[in-house]
Design a protein that fits this description.
- The longest helix is centred in the first third of the chain and has 21 residues, at about 45-65.
- The protein has helices at about 20-35, 45-65, 75-90, 180-190, 205-210, 210-220, 275-280; strands at about 100-105, 115-125, 130-135, 140-145, 220, 230-235, 240-245, 250-265, 270, 285-300, 310-315, 315-320.
- The protein is globular and about 65 Å long.
- Strand 7 (about 240-245) and strand 8 form a beta hairpin.
- It has one domain.
- It has 7 helices and 12 strands.
- With about 325 residues, it is of the alpha+beta class.
- The chain is about 25% helix and about 25% strand.
- The strands form 3 sheets. Strands 6, 7, 8, 10, 11 and 12 form a 6-stranded antiparallel beta sheet that branches.
- This is DUF8094 domain-containing protein.
- InterPro entries: DUF8094 (IPR058407).
- It holds the Pfam family DUF8094.
């Protein structure tokens, strides 16, 4: 939040028969979801606005001081890992102040057992959207996922009280092309494949976000020498995958991945430049590992309504050098 101046598999059970048609199951799922979303949102719009004002002030204070220790006061999970590293490694002019303006509150029902909501915010006259995921961290709401987007969020399904519907990360009712947790895994796999693969085939947005070629160029050894070998591995982070139902029956999914670049050159000292050096200082001769964290927003189609996942956007932040 360094803003300012950031296949579906068929379930086969031996000895069991289908208990109803797809339409019957879809209707049942819809009825259950409607019941879960019937209560009031987990946070009111007035309280959300007050919370955003408080978080903005804390964020500006941390940015001004370039103090990563302060970030934990208002952030957690992937957002904390990314923004703390961003302040540690920041090089440039002082960060200016900014003000989040809550544009749309997307909050699940208090009766749905959800512990998170989305505050879709804007900053001044910027064209980007800042859909911030806030989750309970102890007694406090903290920002846990913060990936600005150039495109608006898809319209979400809402109950009578204005609450949005949470989609279980495992999608046990098989309402989606692939479940939210599968989306994260498939994306991590696709990030290591030119042009993507599977439900991410043809995805061009991820490559623009991750900028693997730029990372390769930045990982150098003494005298600007390229590594003899560079191993790249992308995995899903341990932070939660969260999803909300879109109006067309699909899902808006938030999750994060991390890519580790391990470069080797026998006996040579790494020469990584000021930003990466701030994250890890000197490394052992002959090898360096750089980890980059990406927070993502994707849209998954409903079962039978498409075969591709749409990557809406993401962040790209080096978080570790060793």
């Amino acid at each position: 939040m360094l803003a300012a101046g950031a296949v579906a598999a068929l379930l086969v059970v031996s000895g069991c028969s289908d208990s109803g048609s797809s339409d019957d199951k879809a209707a049942a799922v819809g009825q259950q979801a409607a019941a879960a979303a019937a209560g009031p949102p987990v946070i009111s719009e007035a309280d959300a606005k007050a919370l955003m004002t408080k978080i903005t002030a804390a964020n500006n204070k941390a940015n001004l001081a370039l103090d990563p220790e302060q970030v934990g006061g208002y952030e957690a999970e992937a957002s904390l890992a990314s923004d703390a590293a961003g302040l540690i490694s920041y090089v440039g002019r002082p960060l200016g102040e900014f003000d989040y303006e809550l544009e749309t509150l997307l909050a699940p029902s208090s009766t749905a057992g959800a512990d998170f909501f989305v505050a879709d915010a804007v900053v001044g006259s910027a064209t980007q959207h800042y859909p911030l995921v806030l989750a309970k961290a102890g007694a406090d709401w903290k920002v846990v996922h913060s990936a600005p987007l150039e495109v608006p969020l898809p319209e979400l399904q809402k109950g009578a009280a204005g609450s949005v519907e949470v989609v279980d990360r495992a999608d046990p009712a098989k309402t989606l092309l692939i479940s939210p947790e599968q989306v994260a895994q498939e994306h991590a796999t696709a990030l290591g494949t030119a042009g993507g693969k599977g439900p991410f085939a043809g995805d061009a947005t991820s490559a623009k976000v991750v900028e693997s070629d730029q990372a390769r160029e930045q990982i150098r050894f003494e005298d600007g020498a390229a590594p003899d070998a560079l191993d790249i591995k992308t995995t899903v982070t341990p932070y939660p995958v969260r999803a909300l139902r879109t109006k067309d029956g699909g899902a808006l999914v938030a999750y994060s991945t991390q890519t580790e670049f391990v470069a080797t050159k026998a006996g040579a000292e790494a020469d990584l430049g000021p930003i990466l050096t701030k994250l890890g200082g000197r490394t052992a001769p002959g090898k360096v590992s750089v980890t980059i964290l990406n927070m993502w927003w994707t849209k998954v189609p409903a079962m039978g309504k498409g075969d591709k996942v749409t990557v809406l956007g993401g962040t790209n932040q080096p978080v570790s050098v060793k």
